[in-house]
């Protein structure tokens, strides 16, 4: 398996993106496809929800994910839309909550760039 290291040197908000080879839970990153979304490890507090959820997460699913993440790490990044430097989570609510409950500071994200119009269109 090829090793991939992401190198970014700029600062976003109050946190710095640093070279990483694996997520905070030890799962190595794969090389992103050309022109596809970017895979980054983001602090949980930097990810917002664009809409209020109409239902709560399934506690059993969150518990199962917590156990899985502790044993083998996060296998699938959550989906995040970046609009003007702000990150909005739109898929992966159970995985996000599992990371919160485990006390992990960051989560691996598949980031797509969008506009404010894109965000409004999701309502």
From TrEMBL:
GO MF term set: ATP binding; sulfiredoxin activity
One GO term (biological process): cellular response to oxidative stress
Lineage: superkingdom: Eukaryota
InterPro entries: ParB/Sulfiredoxin_sf, ParB_N, Sulfiredoxin
EC number, as in UniProt: 1.8.98.2
Keywords attached to this entry: Antioxidant, ATP-binding, Disulfide bond, Nucleotide-binding, Oxidoreductase
All copies of domain ParB-like N-terminal, residue ranges: 40-119
CDD domains: Srx (cd16395)
The reaction(s) this protein catalyses: S-hydroxy-S-oxy-L-cysteinyl-[peroxiredoxin] + [protein]-dithiol + ATP = S-hydroxy-L-cysteinyl-[peroxiredoxin] + [protein]-disulfide + ADP + phosphate
Pfam families, A to Z: ParB_N (PF02195)
Annotated Gene Ontology cellular component terms: cytoplasm
Enzymatic class: oxidoreductase
Family: Belongs to the sulfiredoxin family.
Protein name: sulfiredoxin
